Amino acid sequence: MSLEDKVGQLFFAVVYGSHAGSSSDENRARYGVATPAEVVAKYRPGGVILFPWAGNVSTARQVAALTTGLRKASKTPLVIGVDQENGTVSRLGSVITKLPGAGAIGATGNPAIARDTARVTGKELRALGILLDFAPVADVNVNPRNPVIGPRAYGSDPRRVAAMVGAAVDGFHAAGVASVAKHFPGHGDTTVDSHTGLPVIKHSKALWRRLDAPPFRTAIEHGVDAIMTAHVVMPELDPSGDPATLSKPILTGLLRGELGFDGVITTDALDMAGVRKRYGDAEVAVRAVLAGADVLLMPPNLPKAYNAVLKAVESGRITEKRLDESVLRILRLKQRRGVFAVTRTDPRAVKSAEHLKIARRLTGRLAAKP
After folding, report:
1. Rounded distance, CA 66 to CA 17, Å?
2. Are 50 and 82 in contact (CB under 8 A)?
3. Cβ neighbours around 346 below 10 Å, total
4. Which of 199, 219, 225, 349 could staple 178 via S-S, CB 3.0–4.6 A?
């Protein structure tokens, strides 16, 4: 791979349009090319993330055609992901089988429901050509005023959340889909939404180990493919004032060192206010890599971020060894989840009679909880 290819692998981009060949003024303005396929060919991203607001989601057949076209446009096998947590964050909407969200599942105390839900979701994603889900949420939601997590979490008990997260990871893997535990080191005790501000969580390291860390530790034990960072400041873990996404003590020190995670670390979306408070969009991308991140998700200005990382490698600020570490982790994830193989889509497998029956059964079990 060329240096440009390697840098491209670090980025997961948003593309605009319903098909790989759809022309979009948004693509032209952001990337200087018209179609999703041209964006992929030009910047060689490691992955693409789909959103309904980007015009990517309307029907199962359309999504399958889009993912197929995007893969064909990429020189290096492309992983396509989505935020399909179920419940309040369901980017595929009515396209796939409606299943319960984490809060409702966690209230049952039954990890088997978390596993079955993830397995069905994963099977349907794979049928659409989506091989990575940015789920499960591993936050322990202990603050009832939390404006961004709430029912997206499995609950407020770290042991119960950990059991649910581990079961969900198993379910995704049973379906052949990569899973992403989020948001490290924990976003459960905030009153600020990191989409619009920069939350500060004053947990001591001892409290963090007891409250926030257990679900991530369990996810790692279950072989989770990736862990997403949080745009939160934890001054007791890193007194610099940088959010975790840009913190080497948190990502390399705690996640890599203390928890022993050697999978992919992905940032949360880099267009969120929580990570843009202190540095410009170019510098944020470079600092995230230096902190320990492998994937740079949704930079608000992909050309600027791409060129900044490329120049940082060329100047030696980011060593080629450091770049290669991230690229290898990303390629290993792709290999492990079958991205290098031919991906055959089958939109007819979505909302199948079997899956709808499972959904009814799961919903019934939720309704019958004590």
Report:
1. 9
2. yes
3. 14
4. 225
